[in-house]
Amino acid sequence: MSRIVYLVNLFLYKSLFSRLPPSSTFLGKITCAKKLRYVTTKRIIKSTGLNCTIEKYATFTRDTVLGDNSGLGINCSLGKGVYIGKNVLMGPNVTIHTRNHRFDRRDVPIIEQGYSEVQEVRIMDDVWIGGNVTVLPGVTIHEGSIVGTGAVVTRDVQAYSIVGGVPAKKIRDRFL
Questions:
Q1: Which of 71, 92, 152, 156 is least crowded, fewest Cβ atoms below 10 Å from its Cβ?
Q2: Which of 11, 29, 44 is the last residue of a domain?
């Protein structure tokens, strides 16, 4: 894809389509918001699967991978290096960080120490992430998991488990 196509689609997404009403609302349906966001996002990010939903004000980087039937909720923010598998549900205001501020030196103010290296975040297939969740760098959320609303995920989440809280802890298995 040419740089011009990328830049035009990035401009359209950021200036117009990301501001359209949510896909599920009446206005979202009559403005074809879901389709417009999907078509432009497909030309911006590394890989976009079939039937994806990118909601109002979602932000992401060029190297994002989004699997079939997955979605980015309203006002979601993804850092660089995020992989999202198939059939992933994401609530509003989810934030996925892939790097952090450096703070290892005492002789330099934290604000001047820059950032750590990017640590990829992987969200595997069939995961549900509730609203207002924060995922920290280097975390993998394994298949079939549920992350409860407001959780802060600081470490990997086991397959088919339900986690919640700050920091997120396992509440139970999905299938007992």
A1: 156
A2: 44
* 151: containing domain: 46-173
For 162-176, the pLDDT digits (tens) are: 999 999 999 999 987
28 pLDDT more than 80: no
Task: Tell me the helix, strand and coil percentages in the chain, rounded to 5.
Answer: 20, 25, 55
Do residues 40 and 53 both lie within one domain? no
Say if residue 6 is in the same domain as residue 91: no
Q: Verify that 105 and 128 share a domain, yes or no.
A: yes
Q: Write out pLDDT tens, residues 48-79.
A: 999 999 999 999 999 999 999 999 999 999 99
- DSSP structure string for 76-119: -EE-SSEEE-SS-EE-TT-EE----B----SSS-GGGS-BPPP-
Which residues are marked as active site?
101
